[in-house]
Write a structure and sequence with these properties.
Elements: E1 5-6, H1 7-13, E2 17-20, E3 26-27, E4 29-30, E5 40-43, H2 50-53, E6 60-63, E7 75-78, H3 82-93, E8 103-104, E9 109-110, E10 122-123, E11 128-129, E12 134-135, E13 140-141, E14 146-147, E15 152-153, E16 158-159, E17 164-165, E18 170-171, E19 176-177, E20 182-185, E21 190-193, E22 196-199, E23 205-208, E24 213-214, E25 219-221, E26 227-230, E27 235-236, E28 241-242, E29 247-248, E30 253-254, E31 259-260, E32 265-266, E33 271-272, E34 277-278, E35 283-284, E36 288-290, E37 295-296, E38 304-307, E39 312-313, H4 314-325, H5 327-347
Parallel strand pairs: 4-5, 5-6, 6-7, 8-10, 9-11, 10-13, 11-14, 12-15, 13-16, 14-17, 15-18, 16-19, 17-20, 18-23, 19-24, 20-25, 23-26, 24-27, 25-28, 26-29, 27-30, 28-31, 30-33, 31-34, 32-35, 33-36, 34-37, 36-38
Antiparallel strand pairs: 1-3, 2-7, 21-22, 38-39
């Protein structure tokens, strides 16, 4: 194969060290531990796959510095972080990146007042760009994207097919928005009066800082006033709802099916696992981890892991869960004690 590579060259590619195997042996592709075949490279990024690794048919394996398992007949390449290093392997063997093609597709609808360099921006078929939009160099606006009036898009962003960026939003540099996501939709604000829910105007904006990536079908509501703010480096999965005036600190990670109610503020490096719900108007400290299906109803002021509903520190939550499992047995014992007590009372009469 034209992109085949020797073990030694592969080690250099990933910044690792060949500690076992023929330096001149060839690698022709990549695959997972369980599906790899002869000639392919794989990696051990999680100890739970160690048993599967012992039966893998891969020719070459990326391992971490602490790996000490005997592995006969395969090349071993030691790297600091096998998962991260494998990205270089994917880039080598994977399909070439899509070429950047500057210009505006004839079917796109672009306001005459939009500002961008025609030779440094790519705008795809049927995209709609409204008045007073500014787009930075190197940005790709794919097919069917909508960008609302007065929005600012930074450099080297990628807006995937059919995402929506509504009016007056601000995106930093290298922001990625995946298909179907909607940025700057109205916040869910109503006031109940005279038997009806009356809409409250939502006139704020959404600010997304540099190096944020947002998955498919995620919604980030604009602020009622002021801004909904997604901090630098945040990574947000598919199917996430972020309410109006929420503030996320830097480098937070949010997994799918999370709902964050309005006006809650999160610190830096917060991790929110799948199906977590967070109430509105709360403060969540930096370096908090909310485990899957946690329900947060009060402020969290200390870093650490939290679980359950209402969310508790992890070990406290485990104790509560353990105690809950004992309730049926405890009820039975209580009933038995009540019978004995009643019998003793009857004897004393």
């Amino acid at each position: 194969m034209s992109n085949s590579i020797s073990h030694q060259r592969l080690a250099e590619l990933v910044g690792g060290e060949l500690i076992q195997g023929d330096p001149a042996g060839l690698v022709t592709g990549l695959n997972s531990i369980t599906e790899a075949s002869a000639g392919e490279v794989t990696f051990l990024g999680n100890p739970r796959y160690l048993a599967a690794l012992k039966t893998t048919k891969a020719t070459s394996i990326l391992v971490d510095p602490n790996f000490s398992e005997p592995m006969a007949g395969v090349a071993l390449i030691r790297v600091a972080n096998p998962t991260f290093a494998f990205s270089s392997v994917i880039r080598h063997f994977g399909p070439p990146p899509r070429a950047f093609v500057p210009g505006v597709h004839p079917s796109a609808v672009v306001s005459a007042s939009a500002v961008f360099d025609l030779q440094k921006v790519s705008i795809g078929p049927c995209a709609v760009i409204e008045d007073d939009v500014v787009i930075g160099d190197g940005t790709i606006v794919n097919a069917g994207v909508f960008i609302g009036q007065g929005t600012r898009i930074g450099a080297d962003c990628v807006l995937h097919t059919h995402c929506t960026i509504k009016e007056r939003c601000v995106l930093g540099n290298r922001v990625i928005i995946h298909s179907g996501s909607a940025i700057g939709t109205d916040g869910f604000g109503y006031e109940f009066s005279k038997g009806r829910h009356l809409k409250i105007d939502q006139v704020g904006m959404v600010q997304i800082d540099d190096d944020v990536e947002i998955g498919s079908c995620t919604t980030i509501d604009r602020a009622r006033f002021g801004r909904t703010w997604i901090g630098e480096g945040c990574k947000i999965d598919n199917l996430v709802q972020i309410g109006h005036n929420v503030t996320l600190g830097k480098h937070c990670v949010i997994v799918s099916l999370v709902a964050l109610a309005g006006s809650t503020r999160f610190g830096d490096y917060v991790t929110i696992a799948g199906q977590v719900g967070v109430s509105g108007h709360l403060e969540i400290a930096s370096k908090v981890t909310l485990l899957a299906r946690a329900g947060v109803t009060k402020n969290i002021t200390e870093p650490g892991a939290y679980s359950g509903f209402p969310a508790k520190p992890l070990m406290e939550g485990h104790r509560i869960q353990a105690a809950t499992r004992k309730i049926p047995d405890m009820l039975g014992r209580i009933k038995e004690l009540e019978k004995r007590l009643a019998a003793l009372e009857n004897q004393g009469k």
